[in-house]
Amino acid sequence: MLPPGELYRLVLPWVQALGLGQGGPSQAGVAALLTALLVGQSLWPSALMRALPSPPACFARSRYQRVARAWRRPWLSSAHLTPVLVRAVGALLPVAARGPLAGLTHLALDTVRCGRWELFVLGMVWHGRVVPLAWAVLPYPLPKGQFTPTVCALLCQVAAVWPAERPVHLVADRAFASGRLLRLLRALKWGYTLRLRARLHLTVGGREQAVPELWTAAPAAQWSAQPAQYGRGAAGVSGTLVLGKGHWLVPAHQATPGSVRHRARQQARRAHDLRTKRPGRPRAAAPASDGWVVLFSTHAVGWVAALSYRQRWAIEGSFRDLQSGWDGQHGWGLERLLQHWGPASPTVERVVGLSALGSLLQCWLGEELGRPTVPAVMAAVRQEWTTTGRLSVWARGQLAVTEPTGRLQPWLRATLGRGADQLHAAGSAESGRPPAPSEPSAPAVAA
């Protein structure tokens, strides 16, 4: 593990290249907070304040005050960070170059509940994880009439700064599909694959039909695709209706006998809940709809639409990383923090902003360490971490940053420096000026 002071001097050029803040002190503050997150691997204020790079004589109260001041600054808000993160993923995260999805950048949209807050997150899918690009925070229970407007605002926020030469394909679960959202996606000229609810009606073959009627007539052993329209009249949106059984979406490593037994137990518990909770409420369609996946897509081929929709699962893994981690112990503690902490909505938004910056840097480090061209000594360290080789880029980046023996320190220095150079070069290409990164400065210390 690199000492916090040295890691800070490597993180500060990233913050400067991204253009965060308005100059020296604000950039130093963001870099110090980001360094504390990477060192402490937790979003709790107590963990951040202990990991802040500071001289030894800085008291705990001063450290807490530094962390508290960060939540009042605008540099970690979604409005400020979205253009920064879009430029960063353009410079650091390439699109897929092969396969049926080559050239497409998939954006995943979902929500997660943390305490009394509902977080809306839109991010880029990359190597099985999602790098957040825009987010919004609403109190839970959700205010009536705010769900779809919040989602559309996030899409417009990203679309306003997204490069036109990089095609986008949005994937989202059944809670998000609506006529307003589809019309917005059509206006933005974005592709999409959205899962639909079982109670919807679509126009297929010139006749309006309920979704259960459509999957009853569809073959269960393959993906079927047919032209359809969502909505009526001029407000309707044309696309492809894709029907198939859910097991086609299960990755190979989740199709083992143990995974099958685990899913069977989950389905049995859910069926029991449906029978016993609110017995007067009609739920007859639920067991049947659970077995089917109904998609509405701009892809014309059914199995390609299913392949795109599988990208949505990446955001579930990223939510788990921010909360409890892959094993319930190594996450960043976001959910537990917001359950026990009572901040205002802007503070929650800035906490999520810090996690977005940390996820970008940590996932990029994990992907770089997983490359086949990594030096043999570093590959040997990587092979000590797992017997299956299935560590996510986020987990691999976490283990690289916190590796206790120091064998990865030379690689971390070189890799972080190269990443900062890539960001500087991309920023200079946009502005037309030669790169001129400023020298790292000492971390700001509260009085």
Could you explain how this protein is built, in words?
The structure is a single chain. This protein is an alpha+beta fold and 447 residues long. It folds into two domains: 4-77 and 343-431, no CATH class; 104-250 and 288-342, Transposase Inhibitor Protein From Tn5, Chain A, domain 1. Helix content is 47%, strand content 16%. It has 17 helices and ten strands. It has an eight-stranded mixed beta sheet, sandwiched between helices.
Features:
globular, 17 helices, 47% helix, 447 residues, Transposase Inhibitor Protein From Tn5, Chain A, domain 1, 16% strand, alpha+beta
Summarize the structure.
By secondary structure, the protein is of the alpha+beta class. Helix content is 47%, strand content 16%. The longest helix has 25 residues, at 345-369.
CATH class of the largest domain: Alpha Beta
What's the gyration radius in Å? 23 Å
Q: What do the pLDDT scores average to?
A: 88
Assembly category = single chain
Low-confidence stretches: 433-447
Strand order of the largest sheet: 3-2-1-4-5-10-9-8
Q: What's the CATH H-level homologous superfamily of the largest domain?
A: Transposase Inhibitor Protein From Tn5, Chain A, domain 1
The total beta strand count reads 10
Major sheet: size, sense and barrel closure? 8 strands, mixed
Percent of residues in helices: 40-55%
**Level-2 CATH architecture of the largest domain:** Alpha-Beta Complex
